[in-house]
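Human:
Take a look at this sequence-structure pair and walk me through the tokens.
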Amino acid sequence: MTAALIDGNALSARIRDALAARVRVLRERGRSVRLDAVLVDSGDSSARVYADNQARTCASLGIEYKLHLLPAGAAYDDIAGRVLLLNTEDSVHAIMLHLPLPDGVDPYRVQRLIAPEKDVEGVNPANIGNIVYGRSSLAPCTGLAVIKMIESVVPDPVTGRIDLDRSSTQRVESPLLRGRRAVVIGASDVVGKPIAVLLMRQDATVISCNKFTPGLADLARSADVLVSAAGVPGLIQADMVRPGAIVIDVGVNRVQGVDGKNRTVGDVDFDRVRLVASHLSPVPGGVGPMTVAMLLRNVVEAAEAHA
């Protein structure tokens, strides 16, 4: 057996095409779709390059992008004040906060100020609670990306079709993963925990663990769906994967290759696990581009709700 790749680049392109169509509908109704991003100038050109790339990606879908650039060394009150101001503006319906923030400014204190209905990164604690109760569609982007990737290879139990438009945050009549065991390795607040909750909403039996969990290999081997978000290169070996399992690799690790050059790898021993799993996401080219697509999806969802 050789696993089929879950190509995040190809999948995200399909999703962006669908989002562009939804944006056109809103614009034809006279409604704008806009993402407001707050960035503190740290002198790191990579942060500004990322913001510029984000602006171009938004423009390709017809989404307006407004960058609020604050000076280096901006204090908590400056950053929080800008977020609170954006919360009150009716023309703003999607807000995100670029990290890192200046030393001494706790990102959590700022993120929790973003209005839940405008929180397109899903970082406000209220949105995590809303996801648990199925009352919000604005889930953390990486968690939502993982669920969409799983949904892209699991056919609907009733229709037998793959449906990328089905809800990933609310319980549906025919959950894709009902009765299946899902093991999530990593329990961070914005990745591991939201993934576990979203899997629960599909009626999966979810085991949440971490790299220190005793008997981790046995737990991983029991999974129909295995998600690794531990940030440990090579953590998932072939003997930890049940034959035919779906494996999603969320890890992003920089390691030095035999040639002395740094390269990006995931948590999964890709070459060996590919011989065991039924479906496997690569790193890079897997969860990364899908996370960007889910941010854009959340922007469109917020704009539609606002409209």
Notes: The domain at 29-121 is CATH 3.40.50.10860 (Rossmann fold). The radius of gyration is 20 Å. The chain has ten helices and eleven strands. The mean pLDDT is 92.
